[in-house]
Amino acid sequence: MKGINYLINENGAKTAVVIDLQTYGEAIADFLDGLEAEARRDEPTDDFEQVVDRIIAAKAANE
What angle do CA 55, 60, 63 make, to 5 degrees? Predict the structure, then answer.
């Protein structure tokens, strides 16, 4: 596959991959974003409006 190379150890086993980010950078970024989202799946969430209200209140308190 163009832009993808494997590093092979002395036993012929693939040990790492080198990916051309010029070619696959966006796809790699999308993949990593998906992993990040999956890792956070079970984290608690906040209601958007409540977050906005907290930010506005904090800003007003600092003025």
Answer: 130
- Counting the structural domains of the chain, the total is 1
**C-alpha dist (Å) from residue 3 to 6, 25, 40:** 10, 11, 31
CA 28, 34, 40, 42 dihedral sign is: negative
Domain with 21, as residue range(s), is: 4-61
Select from 1, 41, 46 the least CA-distant residue to 19: 1
In tens, the pLDDT along 1-51 reads 899 999 999 999 999 999 999 999 999 999 999 999 999 999 999 999 999
Q: Which of 60, 61, 16 is nearest to 8 (CA)?
A: 16
CB of 3 within 8 A of CB of 24? yes
What predicted TM-score, i.e. pTM, was given to this entire model? 0.57
